[in-house]
Amino acid sequence: PLLAQGSLLYLDVLRATFPQALAPQGMALLSWAPSGLRAPAGWPLPTLYCSPDEASTLPLRAAALRVQLVFALRQRALRVLEAGLAAELHDALGTLRSEWPALAQDLALGRLSPQPGLPEDMRDRLQALLAPDAVRAAEIRAECAHGFEGIVQRLWPQLEVVVIGMAHGAEKLYRDALHQADCKGLPIYCPFYWAAGALLGVNLWPEEPVPRFLLCPDWAFCEFLPCPAKEDSQTVLLGELWEGREYRLVLTARPGEYRCLAGEVLRVTGFHKQCPVVEPVRRDSQVLSVRGESIPEERFCQSLCRAVGMWPGARLVDYVCVESALLGTSSGASAPHYEVFVELQGLRDLSEGQRYKLDQCLQEDFPTYKSFRFKGSIGPLRLHLVGAGAFTRLREALGAPCPMPRVLREEQLLHLIQSNVIS
């Protein structure tokens, strides 16, 4: 019932804002869900979606996204392009960039090329849904040959909106990149707010650039701990929230479940019919702290973006950071420090002076970190450039249809280095 309420609200908002959005077969889905299709709408809707249900359940993420991309490309009259995560849409469009001649050939012949993760019996079933379309294949070749800025709207000229199931937190970097390049000129709508696996709110404002969510009172039992917390701080309820203040979310999602801190910090941006409207600010669990300096992940990202702005021609694609004291021969002996792996566009190498800019930005932005660096109790940050596609491979290696953490455990990184996912 809860998912049904959320789905109906989402579809009603979509129809009211974009009148043609619910045209039959007018939606395409790019999402990997090996346990079964879960569109942002909450259930499979075959009359609306041109994407076959079976495609999202393929055993490998890359295969699922490529097959779904083929079915999306053949539908020129697409109205809505959906993805479960911003990273999924980014990776699917990355496949388009690198494989557009082969994708156009598949459409021209009405076939699916063999690939890892696409069993032959499933390939036959999915291929039977295709028909040769030389005209559409020629359109795709022509648009891709002219570059990829604004490619989404050029490939689907009737597209009204891009819907992403999750586009805040760790996914915000990809959402911003999509908005600036591939999806330029289109609204990006994040319809739902989830926390700790529970559906808590819905976004009623699909055309606004920053997603904010109406908290629905009967979807879960929510309490709020004022932030920053004091020793005598008590939780407050929905009706006691103040506009402009930040709160930690305390959640009891269903009857009989434990009451817990969800690890989410929210800012109240206003009220809609007496219900609070919130904007997710950060996750408490994503904090860097080798000596107790406690740098929130989103503020680390801000420092990193500031450093990237000092590297002429560079654009940040993605990154991960590891609190490191035990990497041994892979990093050299050192005091506890950060190992940062970044993927850039527009720049192939960095000088030592450029690499130091990130450590310098962190010292300027976080006095505690600067103090520990001055004392020598935190060693110099080490910055590593990784090749194009490294983070796509990382998402494949982690193998979970959920946002990739930006802060990795050291043992995770060692495994990825040994597996040549990151080098």
From TrEMBL:
Gene Ontology cellular-component terms for this entry are: cytoplasm
Residue span(s) of domain GH3 C-terminal:
308-397
Q: Which residues form the GH3 middle domain?
A: 214-283
Gene Ontology MF terms:
acid-amino acid ligase activity
Q: Tell me the domain of life.
A: Eukaryota
Q: Which Pfam families match?
A: GH3, GH3_C, GH3_M
Descriptive protein name: GHDC protein
* Source organism of this protein record: Ramphastos sulfuratus
Encoding gene, per UniProt annotation: Ghdc
